[in-house]
Design a protein that fits this description.
Helix content: 55-70%
Strand content: under 5%
Order of helices and strands: HHHH
Number of strands: 0
Structural class: mainly alpha
Shape: extended
Amino acid sequence: MTDADHCAQNALAECMNGILKREFLLGLKFSSFKEALKAVDQAIRSYNFLRIHGELNGETPHEVHSAEPSKPLIAWLKEISRTLPAPQNV
């Protein structure tokens, strides 16, 4: 985050908590610690590798910080197209 006792630290942490709760449903109750830990791990991976960020020009944090872009949106679209039913002729 930021340096200790910096006023921006709380705002940044609250923003991140809000994203995790809203977009990754981490505000829900879990039946076990193991289930909660798994959900947090999935949320962090999605946030860093799949979620595009406007402040990063539509890229993921992984794409910005690595030499090899992962192009998660294209991968996600390919995955979703495989799971959708075939279009029906009307």
